[in-house]
Amino acid sequence: MSSGNELTHFDQEGKAVMVDVSDKAETTRTATAKGRVLVQPETMQLIQQGGFKKGDVLAIARLAGIMGAKKTPDLIPLCHPLMLTSVKVDFTLDPENNAIEVIGTCKLAGQTGVEMEALTAVSIAALTIYDMCKAVDKGIQITDIRLVKKTGGKSGTYEAE
Fold first, then answer.
1. Under CATH, what is the fold of the domain 32-159?
2. Catalytic annotation present for 131
3. Among residues 2, 19, 128, 145, which is most buried (max CB within 10 A)?
4. What's the pTM value of the predicted model, to 2 decimals?
5. 9 is in an annotated binding site
6. Please, how many CA atoms are within 13 Å of residue 97, restricted to the half-sphere of its CB?
7. What keywords does the record list, in alphabetical order (predicted)?
């Protein structure tokens, strides 16, 4: 239950509600999330060479991640619909470990943070890599999705160790 100043997803009767952020200051807020996609060596080679008949795996995953961030309130209950000013999804290939690092960064000027949007961007991009590659690699693993940095808002800056 709310004592008036704390943010909660419950009203005075204990029913789920979207947090009221109307009294919060509007600030520039950013969030970056990361995750890893582990593939077989042959799959990594196909990704690097653009050898998938479905198209450029990373280009499609980038677009899917951006679209996913924009749809976060449709996917995560009680998330605020936000006017994102920037969504960026990047990839770092690590062929030695057959891993793809997925990095998603979201930004806005608003009254609530964009952590969920960054996490959703990474999750959707990683799932898209899985979908694009599953015909040749059923053992793909999606791991370590986490928030690595956020700025703005009352709680200030957070940076993962």
1. Alpha-Beta Plaits (3.30.70)
2. yes
3. 128
4. 0.89
5. no
6. 10
7. Lyase, Molybdenum cofactor biosynthesis
